[in-house]
Amino acid sequence: MERKSNHFSGQLGFVLAAAGSAVGVGNLWRFPYLAAKDGGGLFLIIYFILVLTFGFTLLTSDIAIGRRTQKSAIGAYAEMKPKWKFLGILTFLVPVLIMTYYAVIGGWITKYAVVYLTGQAKAAAADDYFTSFITSSTSPVIFALIFMGVTAFIVYNGVQDGIEKVSKWMMPVLLVLVVIISIYSLTLKHTDSSGQVHTGIQGFLYYLTPNLEGLTVQRFLQILLDAMSQLFFSLSVSMGIMITYGSYVKPDVNLNKAVNQIEIFDTGVAFLAGAMIIPAVFVFSGTEGMGAGPSLMFVSLPKVFAAMGKAGIFVGILFFVTAIFATLSSCISVLESIVANCMEIFHTGRKKTVSVLSAVYLAASAIIALGYSIFYVEVELPNGSTGQLLDIMDYISNSVMMPFIALLSTILIGWVMTPDYVIDEMERNGSRFRRKKLYRIMIRYVAPVMMFILFLQSTGVLS
């Protein structure tokens, strides 16, 4: 077996880098939005159960495959079963597509951070500010290129000197910022025009309390699917990232502890994101503000920060800096996955590979950033929504390819290779795999069915 020259220095470096990949922008806006939409505490309970079962299964599989094969997605699946190399190619294509637009979103967040840092918070709260920004033919491109450039620079410096070094300081800072904003949100108080007082504690209880009103079997299944899709994307599984990161893990690292730590870190940040956003929105916008959906971060939250007065400027700075860290850590992992596969395919060095891919994705980021202006298109997607270039790339990668890849990978591991292929790696060096029985059941029977249903639902077949 060919050993990789790049590797994480130890368990801490790996966990922080992997957790950084898992903790993306989706944790900061999509998780709170879904929790508010899907019954608060009810969504939380379902989500936490899925973390310990469904998420654990896919995360364990990806990391164990990576370390056992010492290869990234294409090489890993080819080594497992040559006839299944196509699954590695499909997995490789997911980050290839995601990378076209992730830096664009990172650029949007960076723009808002700059706006708050330069004292323009009031302007950001205007109704048409976000629309005016993304439809500009210059500003979104500039910020996307800056974000892409920073990402490429970190990956260029390698696993230990780039990814691990940045993750070791960025992830603890991100966690501290999320905790600070969460605590502050609980202290908020606002009296509306009717004289009714709304507090952060009330918003937090709204977040935690299971809302069973109007719950039907169909509604419950929708909440289950929402939680599954959030978990699926949040943990960075079935896109080759965790396989690549797993291939950088040294043999003496206890993968069982590492998987547990990644789960805890990712879920903890997601929970705290809800604790910092939902109470704040509840205080100043009531339950009506919970329906903001995808526009929550760029439209609703700036209005909430504006309503906080002078304190809102400081909170806005903290929030968007936090969002930059979350997005950057994920963007790094997406690019690294592509770089690692290309290095294996073309037998090129890291610096040359990163340089070529940087040029490609700087151009791609610029095109996607202009998808709301010069290259504007409007396409109706199979799930009933309409989208522009960014939405199309996101739909193909997240809603179609990732559930399909996860479905095929559970079949490969559960029935072709058998679960022992992963279990043996988890028990390497005498490590105890406490959830071994659960893993067997999930990978063979439960996960394939769940992924098949999610694939049908996300592609619009089930609506």
Automatic annotation (TrEMBL):
Keywords for this protein: Membrane, Transmembrane, Transmembrane helix, Transport
Annotated localization: Membrane
GO cellular component, one term: membrane
Predominant place of localization: membrane
InterPro entries to which the protein is assigned, alphabetical: Na/ntran_symport, SNS_sf, YocR/YhdH-like
Designated name of the protein: Na+-dependent transporters of the SNF family
Coiled-coil stretches noted in the UniProt entry, renumbered to this chain: none
Membrane disposition: Multi-pass membrane protein
Lineage: Bacteria, Bacillati, Bacillota, Clostridia, Lachnospirales
NCBIfam families (alphabetical): Na_transp
Annotated transmembrane regions: 12-29, 41-65, 86-109, 129-157, 169-187, 220-243, 264-284, 304-335, 356-375, 395-417, 438-456
Keyword Glycoprotein: no
One Pfam family per UniProt: SNF
